[in-house]
Design goal:
CATH class of the largest domain: Alpha Beta
CATH topology of the largest domain: Rossmann fold
CATH architecture of the largest domain: 3-Layer(aba) Sandwich
GO molecular function, one term: transcription cis-regulatory region binding
Largest sheet: 6 strands, parallel
Keywords: DNA-binding, Transcription, Transcription regulation
Protein name: LacI family transcriptional regulator
Domain HTH lacI-type: 16-70
Radius of gyration: 27 Å
InterPro entries: HTH_LacI, LacI/GalR-like_sensor, Lambda_DNA-bd_dom_sf, Peripla_BP_I
Order of helices and strands: HHHHEHEHEHEEHEHEHEHEHEHEE
Length: 357
């Protein structure tokens, strides 16, 4: 008869509690609590005894108990539409660095540019008792929704619409698109295609307005067929760019959002046999590795991504302070930080080819 040996995994060590610290320090539970939380009168001798005991026992405060006691969690939520977008990575890092300096942790979520997903994630974050939220662009930007969420939670809008009493960070996408279009007009282009994110989102809407303003200023009629915006990215940009380049009256220049849309446009130019910049000029909105390393290097509309993240974190920290102090956030006017764009000139733009070329 075979015998069986039962093996058991070692039990996890019991969590050290404040009662253990008080017992080791030889003080009351109340004294230990006041010493550890710096929340009341404690003698120097008792304070030192508690600190020694806590260090010897490797005591760590229970975050749930702390949250219940203080009404704060020390955690901030951040939602963006697409975590795969490398532009967001730099913004998120900047937010995290600034928040960590104040002792906050950050939880990041992906809305997939879906209103329903955003509302689900916001509800989840609220139930997890986050101290504040930073919300990036999403499918349907309703300032009333932000007003509703901010009634009992610090909220900062990042490159999206917010109401009269809301706060947020905006990049001047109008000016960026305006200057990019004007630069191409100065080179002699009049057939300029714009490929950007959904016009329902503030960045896409502002770029379209800036593009139109530059054309109208020069007396160039706006051809709506050259303005392409969509929720999706590379798939739409490749098919749309290929269709535009195959048309008889094709565009001689493109302004396109970086990363995936830019990749789709580059694929379309290659497949259609058009050379950058000899046959078609190209400006991307948002700088990164692809426009810098592509040959020829691509002229870009750039802005300080780290400044976006830092500014969003700064505004949120002030809003959290206002909420904790019980300030009437509705009585105060909202705060907007607006960041400028700049053109980074490289090798992807040239005068349009001669007619018939």
């Amino acid at each position: 008869m075979s015998s069986r040996t039962r093996t058991t995994s070692p039990a996890s060590p019991a969590r050290v509690t404040i009662r253990d610290v008080a017992r080791a320090a030889g003080v009351s539970l109340g004294t230990a609590s006041r010493a550890l939380n710096r929340s009341g009168p404690v003698s120097d001798a008792a304070l030192q005894a508690v600190e020694r005991a806590a260090k010897a026992l490797a005591y760590a405060p229970d975050p749930i108990a702390q949250s219940l006691r203080t009404g704060t969690s020390g955690v901030v939520g951040l939602l963006v539409s697409d975590l795969a977008n490398p532009l967001y990575a730099r913004i998120i890092t900047a937010v995290e660095i600034r928040l960590q300096r104040e002792g906050y942790a950050m939880v990041v979520g992906n809305t997939h540019n879906s209103k329903a997903q955003e509302e689900l994630m916001v509800d989840l974050f609220r139930r997890r008792r986050v101290d504040g939220l930073i919300l990036g662009p999403c499918e349907a930007e309703r300032s009333e929704y932000l007003d509703q969420v901010s009634r009992d939670l610090a909220v900062v809008a990042m490159d999206r619409d917010f109401g009269e009493h809301g706060s947020g960070v905006h990049v001047d996408h109008f000016r960026g698109a305006y200057e990019a279009c004007r630069y191409l007009l100065d080179l002699g282009h009049t057939r300029i295609a714009l490929m950007t994110s959904d016009a329902a989102l503030r960045p896409g809407r502002e770029r379209i307005h800036g593009y139109r303003a530059a054309l109208q200023e020069r007396g160039v009629a706006v051809d709506q067929a050259l303005v392409r915006s969509s929720r999706s990215a590379m798939d739409f940009s490749f098919s749309d760019a290929l269709a535009l380049l195959s048309a008889k009256d094709r565009p001689t220049a493109f302004i396109c959002l970086g990363t995936r849309i830019l990749s789709g446009v580059l694929q379309a130019t290659r497949q259609s046999g058009h050379r950058v910049p000899l046959d078609v000029s190209l400006i991307c909105v948002g700088d990164g590795d692809l426009p810098q390393l592509y040959s020829p290097a691509i002229t870009a509309v750039s802005w300080d991504l780290e400044a976006v993240g830092t500014a969003a974190a700064e505004i949120l920290l002030r809003a959290i302070g206002d909420h904790e102090a019980g300030a009437d956030t509705k009585a105060a006017a909202g705060q907007e930080v607006r960041l400028a764009t700049q053109m980074v000139l490289r090798e992807s733009c040239a005068p349009p080819p001669a007619a018939g070329a």
